[in-house]
Specification:
It comes from Halioglobus japonicus. InterPro entries: PRC_barrel-like_sf, PRC_RimM, RimM, RimM_N, RimM_N_sf, Transl_B-barrel_sf. This is Ribosome maturation factor RimM. This protein is mainly beta. The protein has two domains: about 80 residues, RimM (Elongation Factor Tu (Ef-tu), domain 3, Beta Barrel); about 80 residues, PRC-barrel domain (SH3 type barrels), CATH 2.30.30. It is about 5% helix and about 45% strand. It contains two helices and 13 strands, in the order ββββββαβαββββββ. The chain is elongated. The relative contact order is 0.17.
Length: about 180
């Protein structure tokens, strides 16, 4: 991972209270979902500011997860956390193998594709805005940017070695084998 500094990342969300003893339902954006509870130093984003919290217990419940926030021992107080984003620092994420990237590292990269009639001529498709998890594979959502070939938004499968031919975080570039008509 090529992170420098401590950048806050949204790693999950509290979706509502659970029971009467201060537990909350949690939707984790990590894979696997349990990784959310391995980071530590959790913060909740409330009205533009961050407040530090501690999850002192957590467990799987049905298809989701529930957690207890230290010091929150009743449903009414737990309800006040509904809808808050769970934030962690980027530098608390584990390092990845060479060639693997966190989604947040790909966001903002310039996406370059190919002209169908030419051999190797690259064109700027736009900038990676965000990614979508589809089940089969992740998808890059590329939005038009200054200098891009047109004003279209493109959905490009994130398939390293097949569709994604090169990623350079240092250059701020992702190259895709994706023709303009696709």
């Amino acid at each position: 991972m090529s992170e420098s500094g401590a950048n806050p990342l949204t790693a999950g969300k509290i979706t509502g209270p659970y029971g009467v003893k201060g537990w909350v339902k949690v939707h984790s954006f990590t894979d696997p979902e349990e990784n959310l509870f391995r980071f530590g130093a959790w913060q909740l984003q409330r009205r533009g500011s961050l407040e530090t919290v501690e999850f002192d217990e957590w467990k799987r419940h049905g298809k989701g997860m529930i957690a207890h926030i230290a010091g929150v021992d009743d449903r009414t107080l737990a309800e006040s956390f509904k809808g808050l984003s769970i934030v962690v620092e980027a530098n608390s994420l584990p390092s990845l193998e060479e060639g693997d990237y966190y989604w947040h590292q790909l966001q903002g990269l310039q996406a370059w594709g190919r002209e169908p009639e030419s051999e190797g001529d690259r064109v700027l498709l736009g900038t990676v805005d965000y990614m979508i998890e589809t089940g089969a594979n992740d998808v890059l959502v590329i939005k038009a940017s200054d200098g891009s070939i047109d004003d279209r938004e493109r959905l490009v499968p994130y398939l390293p070695g097949d569709v994604v031919t090169r990623v350079s975080l240092e250059e701020g570039v992702i190259e895709v084998d994706w023709y303009l008509e696709e």
